[in-house]
């Protein structure tokens, strides 16, 4: 039995089944999975060091989401040879590349870090008398 290729959910979201053997947007698709896993682990270690030095709980949360997403993708590569993508968001005929929940964690964590960094710049400005 063949599963359906696309399961429509709403007028902007489908469930799909895809395997990404590269990184974001399928870049580096010919790279061996072990090399991508090593890169993912190295990045996660660097982020753990950053997190251990973080002074803000928001930074810690953002970094934790990114690390969790990276580890989820590393596990997929280890077990399956690539990342299983299944979330397909679109507007009209324009589809964002499919993704998975690990990618959602990475994007949300990056957004938290960006938001916090834009807010911390405002706090550092001297107040006017």
From TrEMBL:
Membrane topology reported for the UniProt record: Multi-pass membrane protein
Location of the protein in the cell: Cell membrane
Source organism of this protein record: Pseudorhizobium flavum
Entry GO terms, CC: plasma membrane
Protein family per UniProt: Belongs to the peptidase A8 family.
GO biological process, one term: proteolysis
Keywords: Aspartyl protease, Cell membrane, Hydrolase, Membrane, Protease, Transmembrane, Transmembrane helix
Membrane-crossing residue ranges in chain numbering: 34-51, 58-75
Gene name as annotated: lspA
InterPro entries cross-referenced by the UniProt entry: Peptidase_A8
Pathway info: Protein modification; lipoprotein biosynthesis (signal peptide cleavage)
EC number, UniProt record: 3.4.23.36
Molecular function terms from GO: aspartic-type endopeptidase activity
Name of the molecule in the record: Lipoprotein signal peptidase
